[in-house]
Amino acid sequence: MSKLPMSPIRTGGKPARVSEHQLEIDGLSFDVHRSDRRKTMQITVERSGDLSIVAPSTVPADQLVSFVEEKLIWVHTKVEEKARLQQRAPRKEFVEGEGFLYLGRSHRLRLIDNQLVDLSLKNGRFCLRRGSIHRGRDIFVSWYTRRAQQWFEKQVAGLSNRMGVTVQEVKVQDLGFRWGSFGTDGRVSFHWKAILLPPRIAQYVAVHELAHAHYPDHSATFWIKVEQHLPDWRWRKTWLAENGIQAEGL
Ligand SMILES: [Zn+2]
Predict the structure, then answer these.
(1) CA of 120 to the centre of ligand 1 (A)
(2) Residue 127 Cα distances to 33, 143, 148, 234, angstroms
(3) How many Å apart are CA 27 and CA 16, to the nearest integer?
(4) What is the CATH number of domain 142-248?
(5) For residue 120, with 0-12 CB atoms within 10 Å meaning exposed, 13-18 middle and 19 or more buried, which class applies?
(6) In the chain, what are the domain boundaries?
(7) Per-residue 3-state assignment (H helix, E strand, C coil) for 95-134
(8) 163-221, pLDDT tens digit by residue?
(9) Residue 90 alpha carbon to ligand 1 centre in Å
(10) How far is the CA of 51 from the centre of ligand 1 (A)?
């Protein structure tokens, strides 16, 4: 007499556990998002290493599991890659000579005894008032935020007409592990860190987010929209995935 396994869903001898919002498989845990609008399944590996899967509402659990099983090697490779990249970002110190990025270029830090403003960029050097070092990070973040606001407003103004997008507001803030987002209210947000990226990469981030005004997911039609406005988006996307983490050091 043979016993049936508790769960009919098995992978590599280890059972996969699947609930409405969670799928655990091969030591990995995915957030499951179901949507009536989805036609295909898609796995996303966030920069944080978090995993999610979006699927049409009607896809049964075992089909979800076999979809993920087929992509396990790819997912494990991505997760390891993200972990390795995370380690590479050194934390910045507010000492003489430290390099800080701005639009893809590294500028060395000078500490100034007498300066009216906390921070300025002069002759390719970041000049920080010595007495403000203890607030160094906050000062840099607000400097980057202001610059990002101006830069992305200009980008969006140039792109929105061409891309047929109505933008209500451009916001710059801390978006965690995301570079940008496009809200259903017509508000486009960018992470202040996006201003550390080289202009052509930051431009890709802007086009990417505005394309989300047309397609909220990363479907084939979404990428076609991106390609219409940025034919060479692929290398920019790859560059961002591989090097974007350098902007994390602050
Ligand atoms: Zn996106």
Answers:
(1) 33
(2) 46, 12, 19, 36
(3) 9
(4) 3.30.2010.10
(5) middle
(6) 10-88, 142-248
(7) CCCCEEEECCEEEEEEEECCCCCCEEEECCEEEEEHHHHH
(8) 999 999 999 999 988 999 999 899 999 999 999 999 999 999 999 999 999 999 999 99
(9) 27
(10) 15
